[in-house]
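W.,

You were right to be curious about this one. When I first looked at the sequence I had no strong expectations either way, so I just let the prediction run and decided to look at it fresh. Below is the sequence, 344 residues in total, followed by the output.
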Amino acid sequence: MSRDENQRAQEVARPDDPVESSEHEGKNKPGHTAGPRTDDTTWAIRYPSPTPVIPPYRIADVSRYVWHEIDASDRARLAALDPHTRASYERLGYVPGAERFSLGHFRIDEQHSVAFEVIPALGEVSYSEVFEYTPGTAKRPSNDDDNPPSPLLRFLQLTDKSVPVPMMLEAFDDGSDEPETVQALAQRELVDDVLDYGLTLSAQPPVTTANSNHVSASTCVIGGDDVFSANYCESKGTWYCDNSAWVSLVRSSGSKKRKVSHSRVAACGGNFTTVEHQFRSWSWLDAKWRWSSVLYPIPPAAWFQSIGGGGVKFWKHVSGTKRRRKIKIWTDAPSYFRAWTAFY
C-alpha cells in the first residue's frame, strides 16, 4: 500500500476514534468531512500484561498476524526499534498484533472462494466468502439467508467425512451446540494441531453455490447508480445502499454487535478501490480495545481487498462471535465506487 493510500486510510478511520455512527459517514467528493460520531461507552477492566513486542518487519509475514492501524502507543514502541524496521512500519501505517492461522482455503470456481482462519489469542474463528468478477463478468448475488451458517457448520457443509475438522472451529464457535451443527459433526474426526493440518489443507468442496445470472449493464455509466441498486442492494440487518459515485466511505454496525460484515463493491475509473473489513475486540497483548483488520484470503493475501476499474467484488466475513464491525472503502478521484454494505 502506498504512502498516499495509508494517509487516506488513516483519514477515513483511526483505531482510537469513538465508535462510528450507523448514520452515513464518508464523502462523495474530495474535501467532504465525515459525519457525526457517537461516544464510545464500551469499557473493560485493564488487566496487567507485558508490553507487546513488535516483530522485525517482513512483508511476507502479512498473513501471519492481525494488523492494526498505528496509534500513539504503537509509536512509542516503534521508537525503540531499529531505524529500518521503524521506517518500514511507519510507511505501511500498520503494525502486527496476535498471530492468525489458516484452517483451510476452498476454491469453488473461478470467482468463488471460501477461507477459514482462527486467531487463538482473540478467541476468534471465522470465514470469508468471496466472489471476484473482472469487468463484464459480474453476476447477481444469490439470496443469502440473514443467518448464514457459522464457521463450523460452513466447514462441515463444504467437506465430506474424509476431511478432519479443526478442533478450534468447534472450540471458538458460539453456534457449535446448535442441533444442525451437532448432527453434522457426528462421526467427524476432530484434529487438534493447527500447524500440521490447517496450514496445508487445500480441498475441492463437493458443492457449488455460484449464481449464473449475469448483470447485463455496467455500473460505471450514466444511470449506473440504478443498475447497482437493482442488482446488488438488498435489505439485510443494518444495511446501506451507497449507489452514488463515492471516493471514500465508512459504514459500521454502530454500538450493535454482529457476526457478519458484508460488502459488494463496484469500482469505476483507472485507480484501484480498497476495501477493509474490521472488528473490535479486547487485545490482551496491548491491554486495550482495538480494531483488527480481517485478512483478505485471495493471494497475495493482505488485510484489504483491491478492486480494479470495472471490477465487482463481494466479500462476506462470518465470525463465530458477535462483535462490533465496520467496513472502510476508498479510492483516488476522479475514480469512484458504488457500494452495498451490511452487518447482521
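Here's what jumped out at me. The first helix runs from residue 3 to 12. And, maybe more interesting for your project: Residues 200 and 263 are 28 Å apart (CA to CA).

Coffee later to discuss?

I.
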